[in-house]
Write a structure and sequence with these properties.
four-stranded antiparallel sheet, rod-shaped, SH3 type barrels, three-stranded antiparallel sheet, 23% helix, 198 residues
Length: 198
Amino acid sequence: MSASTGTPKSSLKPLLFVLLAAAGLAGLSYFPRGNGAAEAPASAPLSGLPRAARVGADPESVPDLTRLAARGRADERVGRNIFRFYDAPTPTPRPTPVPTPTPVLPGSALYVGPMPIPPTPTPTPIVPPAIPYKVLGVFGSRDDLIVSLEEGGRIINAREKDVVDGRFRVHKINRESVDFSFPGLPPEITRRIPIPLP
């Protein structure tokens, strides 16, 4: 058991040395060669210089830092805010609310137009009172008939156009019926009582 575990450890040692060598080469290639970093001015950071200046290939390619510093000062006001529109947007016009017109009714002082025609009143139907009499019979000549009426034990004889009890007028005496009209009402409003057969 111990022999099987010892063989993988011995095979890992060369692999570990290869990885360390690769890491060392990568580290050497990262650091600059020569003394180009020492030639750079102490006031300027290394990250602000171009790659050629950091390497130290050509001193002419180093940018003039005085011109770069004059381009923007701390007390200078910034002319543009990136969180705002450069041009002010045109405001959206709000629609003007339209007032609801108040209807002008006929009869008010502001109403202009024809007045409405008032509705024709429906006539109240005239209901004549009931006739309290009972016809007993008719007698007399053909040209001058007399009707005999009975009401509560009272017997009344009347001719045409006679007013009975001030409320009923004998309008017409026929062969089989008697028509009554009413004083104060139109003459066409009548009530008919039949004459009993003998």
